[in-house]
Write a structure and sequence with these properties.
The structure holds 3 protein chains of 3 kinds.
Chain A: E1 23-29, E2 35-44, E3 56-62, E4 65-72, H1 80-85, H2 93-97, H3 104-119, H4 125-154, H5 159-179, E5 188-189, E6 192-193, H6 201-223, H7 227-233, H8 241-246, H9 252-256, H10 263-266, H11 287-311, E7 332-340, E8 343-351, E9 359-363, H12 365-369, H13 373-377, H14 382-392, H15 396-400
Antiparallel strand pairs in A: 1-2, 2-3, 3-4, 5-6, 7-8, 8-9
Helix pairs in contact in A: 3-4, 4-5, 4-11, 4-14, 5-6, 6-11, 7-11, 11-14
Chain B: H1 3-11, H2 19-28, H3 40-49, E1 72-76, H4 84-93, E2 99-103, H5 104-109, E3 131-133, H6 140-155, E4 180-181, E5 186-187
Parallel strand pairs in B: 1-2, 2-3
Antiparallel strand pairs in B: 4-5
Helix pairs in contact in B: 2-6, 3-6
Chain C: H1 4-14, E1 20-23, E2 33-36, H2 41-50, E3 58-67, E4 70-82, E5 85-97, E6 100-108, E7 117-122, E8 131-133, H3 142-152, E9 156-158, H4 196-204, H5 206-210
Classes of the chains: A alpha+beta, B alpha/beta, C alpha/beta.
Chain lengths: ~400, ~200, ~210
């Protein structure tokens, strides 16, 4: 880190306020007090084409090299937790859709899991299967889109993202047939799911799962061996194993650093213990590993989906003891977490016995995965900051909540 | 010009058209939006510009990262109080003629997050909105519909006379004051020249 | 993982000065938590991280909680003089239990794959003595989460390298996640408010409220 405690170095560690210019030149002095050149202070965001939403980074550059980076949050702070404390348990379910708006199904599941832990509800087997199918479909479309956006950050405007969105639309069609909404599914309930599968849905999903490897092969053939992709991604933004664990990094980012920690395997929530799948691990922890890891995870998701679609039993889809109205869990607390596509998504609920949660906390993987953004970017070129941020995979709805 | 003459010329392969119609036709079919996503609706905005919905059919696929090159601001998502000054500043930086689409319930009124302490209850408190799209989030088709509504508004504009659009008038403001962050709320909390609280009358 | 009472005994032996207490969890099947006083919080967290049997190296979640002052009624038997005689009567005493801010930590172990261990720390009150030790020297994952709690609850984390507001803007005066926070009254209410919203709507439309 650069020491900024020099007398003439007049800028404070705080924010350059909204009214100040987005760019500022700060004179740089040597230890002897001689002027050595300039630092450039840039406010990147909140409106920037590559910050994936209203995210802002305050950068200090020496030439093109990043010597300081402070992320600034809160431009999408929508008071999700406060609103959830003022409303009933069930009314918070649609709000969870809007946390990570790419993955509403997994958000629903994490919240439902926490409430089920709190109230001691059981989930029928068919509902467990539906949950796994929808969650893995969500993982497929999230990772596909992430790679599309990452390629867009690299400068491949359009094409990879178009391919990813083409596949995403097919999955969204399934979600729409299931829940009535493309993105904001609001599908899961405490102790099960809201509505049973429509006729023909499983058949259509099987067809999608059978076709999906073709898209992956195509994507892989286009991108993984691509010279530009390798040159820009390999060796950029390497994250060490120790720092990853210490900084609470979770999800594909943690595993890209070589830590074998997949909550689907560790907690075995739902019925993940019935499925055989491998956990891909990275060796270098750089952007390329994070990129490849998601590609491999999509193949593993398909390995879960195939037997799940085959073995799904018939039966009820919601616990008969689950109450939708007048739902008041006993005073206590519960922490439920799942392996969301972005990482460990957890919900911590404190009940005081009333109809509203006393405390409703979301453990946002996107926010905590950004903890090490500065460590990854220091010493890199400013153009690589965009790629590192893209490989972290953030969604601002979840970062700021 | 005589209507019969126009149709006669058209039959001969000559299209005659008024300058106003031509000008509006050109403007309405080359609306460049600002690539500016705030929240969930931005993903549907991206989806609208992707292969399936193909916003390019209506001449509006050129998402510009810079407000200086954009004609249309699609306020796609929740405007928080922390973000509101930047949204107004971006609007001020856009060149005239410029338009605003408020996409989704949040941009219209705060939507599901209306009770939030950091949520602006509708972007029309600070900006003049031309088209509102309800929905949470609106489907890409709804965005296309809003765009076509905007195109209809633009094609119907008169270039002269008292009804001429804002960018042809000198008395209408092209920029709006940027709010600042106060100790508890935005200061001012709304632009009173643009927006006044609705009077709610309730039956007894 | 060892049980919480076992861990408490071990911790008490390792840190004789630390005040430890098991906070029972009323929800069945969910783990109890361990309360530790603020002065020895950092040392206890270091023990949890480095102990060979625990290896809780993954601080997953840091949560702020606000507990308001509450009035507790208590029945006490007191002696009173009544007509020259001393008799015992019941008296109802009202006691104000001061509120506090609480921070809850969820620890997991990546090598041993166990968890969660729930640790709690409490501030002395809600107003001026809201200091807690920061766990950032041990766990980087606390960095943004503690900043968020400082922002939304007003807990001051001593030893945090960069304690600024995370979500709200600089210059914002309140701590909005506190239970007694009043948000600015800046929106209209739907025609049929109910519950807590009705109270707010009444304050918002005083003239209509006066007419019932």
């Amino acid at each position: 880190m650069v020491d900024f405690a020099q007398p003439e170095n007049a800028f404070k560690p705080g924010l350059p306020g909204a009214a100040e210019p987005a760019c500022r030149v700060v004179p740089k002095y040597s230890d002897q007090g001689e002027r050595e050149g300039d630092w450039l202070e840039i406010s990147m965001g909140p409106q920037h084409p590559s910050t994936h939403g209203v995210f802002r980074m305050d950068l200090v550059l020496e030439g093109e090299t990043v010597i300081r980076l402070k992320p600034v949050f809160g431009y999408l702070h929508r008071n999700h937790e406060k609103i959830a404390e003022q409303t009933t348990y069930l009314s918070s379910m649609p709000y969870t859709d809007r946390l990570d708006y790419f993955c509403s199904m997994t958000n629903n599941w994490a919240y439902a899991l926490a409430v089920e832990k709190l109230a001691g509800l059981q989930v029928p087997e068919r509902a467990e299967y539906i949950r796994i199918i929808t969650a893995e479909l969500t993982r497929l479309q999230n990772h596909a889109c992430l790679m599309g956006f990452l390629m867009q950050d690299l400068g491949a405007m359009g094409t990879p993202l178009m391919y990813a969105f083409r596949e995403r639309e097919k999955i969204l069609d399934l979600f729409e047939a299931l829940s009535g909404a493309r993105m904001m599914c609001n599908y899961m309930r405490f102790g099960g799911c809201r509505i049973d599968l429509p006729p023909g849905w499983l058949e259509q999903t099987r067809r999608l799962v059978a076709d999906f490897p073709r898209f992956l092969d195509e994507f892989e053939a286009l991108l993984t061996g691509n010279e530009i992709v390798m040159a820009r991604l390999q060796g950029v933004g390497a994250l060490s194993r120790e720092l990853a664990i210490n900084a609470g990094i979770s999800g594909p980012m943690l595993r890209a650093s070589g830590v074998n920690y997949d909550i689907r395997k560790v907690d075995q929530y739902g019925i993940y213990n019935r499925f055989e799948f491998r956990v891909p691990l990275g060796a270098h922890g750089d952007c390329y590993d994070r990129f490849m890891l998601r590609l491999l995870e999509m193949r593993e998701s398909l390995r879960i989906l195939e037997p799940a679609l085959k073995d799904i039993p018939s039966g009820p889809i919601i616990d008969a003891r689950a109450k939708l109205r007048n739902f008041k869990p006993r005073p206590g607390e519960a922490y439920g977490r799942i392996e969301a596509p972005k990482g460990e998504l957890g919900f911590y609920l404190v009940s005081d016995g009333s109809a509203n949660p006393y405390r409703y906390r979301v453990r946002p993987p996107s926010l905590i995965n950004l903890t090490i953004l500065e460590d990854l970017c220091l010493g890199q070129k400013v153009a690589d900051v965009v790629i590192i941020l893209g490989s972290v995979d953030i969604v601002l709805g979840e970062v700021d909540r | 010009m005589d209507q019969a003459l126009i149709s006669e010329l058209k039959r001969q392969g000559v299209i005659t058209i008024g300058l106003e119609t031509l000008y509006n036709w050109g403007r309405s079919n080359s609306i460049w939006p600002l690539g500016f996503g705030l929240a969930c609706c931005a993903i549907e905005m991206i989806a609208a510009s992707m292969a399936r919905f193909d916003l390019a059919r209506f001449g509006a696929e050129v998402f510009r990262p810079s407000p200086r090159q954009a004609d249309l601001m699609i306020v796609a998502g929740t405007v928080t109080k922390k973000m509101a000054p930047q949204v107004v500043r971006l609007y001020n930086q856009m060149p005239e003629p410029k338009y605003v689409i408020a996409m989704g319930a949040c941009a219209i009124s705060g939507g599901p997050f209306k009770q939030g302490y950091n949520v602006l209850k509708g972007v029309d408190r600070f900006l003049p909105v031309d088209v509102h799209i309800p929905g949470c989030p609106p489907r890409p088709e709804a965005l296309i519909h809003a765009l076509m509504t905007l195109q209809r508004i633009i094609s119907g504009q008169k270039l002269t006379g008292p009804d001429r659009p804002r960018h042809l008038r000198t008395d209408a403001p092209a920029e709006y004051p940027v709010p600042t962050h106060g100790a508890h709320d935005l200061e001012p909390a709304r632009n009173s020249s643009l927006w006044r609280p609705l009077k709610i009358t309730r039956e007894a | 993982m060892e049980t919480l009472p076992q861990l408490k005994t071990r911790l008490a032996a390792a840190f004789p000065k630390a005040r430890l207490e098991i906070v029972p969890n009323g929800s069945p099947g969910n783990p109890d938590s361990l309360w530790v006083d603020a002065a020895s919080g950092l040392k206890v967290a270091g023990f949890l991280k480095n102990d060979a049997a625990l290896q809780l190296d993954f601080l997953s979640n840091v949560t702020g909680l606000d507990w308001l002052d509450k009035t507790v009624t208590e029945k006490v038997r007191v002696k009173r003089e009544f007509k020259g005689q001393e008799i015992e009567v019941d008296e109802i005493l009202e006691k104000i239990v001061p509120g506090y801010l609480e921070v809850v930590y969820h620890f997991y172990s990546t090598p041993l794959r166990h968890g969660p261990l729930v640790l709690r720390m409490r501030t002395e009150n809600r107003t001026d003595r809201t200091h807690l030790p920061s766990l950032v020297p041990l766990y980087r994952s606390a960095e943004f989460q503690e900043r968020e709690i400082y922002d939304l609850y007003g807990v001051i984390f001593d030893g945090h390298p960069d304690l600024r507001r995370l979500l709200m803007w600089e210059g914002f005066a309140d701590h909005p996640m506190r239970k007694d926070y009043c948000e600015p009254d800046d929106y209209e209410y739907e025609p049929t408010p109910h519950g807590a919203l009705l109270e707010k709507a009444r304050r918002h439309y005083p003239r209509e409220a006066a007419h019932g």
